[in-house]
Amino acid sequence: MNKVLATAGRTCLLAGLSALAVASAGLVAATPALADFRVCNATQSLVGVAIGYRAQAGWVTEGWWHVEGSTCKTLIEGALSSRYYYLYAEDAERGGRWDGPVNMCVAEREFKIAGAGDCFARGFQRAGFQEYDTREQASWMVQLTDDPATGGPAVTGTGDQ
Fold it and tell me: Residue ranges per domain, the chain?
């Protein structure tokens, strides 16, 4: 009798483990891969970030995301739809900035601006954005860092694989 119960118990246990493995595999397969555009602030300061990109209707700039020191923030959720993205950031505490040669419009407060030209005529400010070629990857991460060689901020961008 004990032998029959032991065999039945083992069979039940194996069936339960098999079902758990199949359910876990299904859960892993059903979990979507994270895809987004993230900015990580490797400094100790609060940073304000704006992003520019080409949408179906034309150029768009959006901001401000506040990224605390040593944290990351997602600016665009989901798979990236453009190859090129543009970033501008300001150090809210020390006054530095991460910029580049591509001029786009920004506003003093939270904004979403259609079009990249005639910033002043339309009541906006102009800022120089840095271009990032995502090579059409689904995800991209930019890390804002302090550059010890020049004392100014540096930016690095990488695709998430």
Answer: 1-31, 36-158
Residue type, 104: M
Q: Tell me, which fold does domain 36-158 have in CATH?
A: Immunoglobulin-like (2.60.40)
Q: Please, which residues bridge with residue 145 across strands?
A: 154
Non-local CB neighbours of 33 within 8 Å, separated by 6+ positions: 138
**39-92 pLDDT per residue, tens:** 999 999 999 999 999 998 899 999 999 999 999 999 999 888 889 999 999 999
Report in angstroms the alpha-carbon separations of 113 from 37, 90, 96, 104: 19, 18, 24, 9
Find the Cα–Cα–Cα–Cα dihedral 51, 54, 59, 64, rounded to 10°.
-10
In the predicted structure, residue 7 carries a pLDDT above the cut 70: no
Identify which of 25, 43, 49 has the alpha carbon closest to the alpha carbon of residue 111.
Answer: 49
